[in-house]
Amino acid sequence: QVQLVESGGGLVQAGGSLRLSCAASGRTFSSYVMGWFRQAPGKEREFVSTISWSGGSTYYADSVKGRFTISRDNAKNTVYLQMNSLKPEDTAVYYCAAGRGSLRAIATMSTADKYNYWGQGTQVTVSW
Asked: Which of 52, 72, 83, 90 shows a CA-CA span of 20 to 30 A to 18?
């Protein structure tokens, strides 16, 4: 079992930055691929980014590429999402997730069904 707790959400103006954190319980954090997803009101949950066990491989949705950076600190059992140049369309509840992953390319971890554990979410609101 892995428990995930997100933090760092809030209200920010367009063009601003936020850094989300996701703290994981347990001693097996480094054995999980970690991902970030988001869900805006009235929309389906969508993939944002994912990072491999060691942090050596990352993958991003086209909508956030070049603006968001995912990273992890296995010693702290924490995954981060640095969000820069935020846009109003980034407004959503952001969720972190943990999945076992595989030896396939990291891009295969871009769907929600690959993840077994989810956090409760943190709200990000970007205003004009």
From this structure: 52
User: Which is nearest to 6 in space by CA: 60, 111, 88, 80?
Assistant: 80
Burial of 67 per CB tally in 10 Å (0-12, 13-18, 19+): middle
pLDDT in tens, 43-93: 999 999 999 999 999 999 999 999 999 999 999 999 999 999 999 999 999
What is the distance, to the nearest Å, from the Cα of residue 12 to the centroid of all Cα atoms in its chain?
Answer: 18
pLDDT reading at 37 higher than 90: yes
User: What gap in Å lies between CA 99 and CA 115, rounded to an integer?
Assistant: 4
User: Could you tell me the two tokens for 85?
Assistant: 């140049």
Q: How far apart are CA 42 and CA 27, in angstroms?
A: 36
C-alpha span between 44 and 25 (Å, rounded): 27
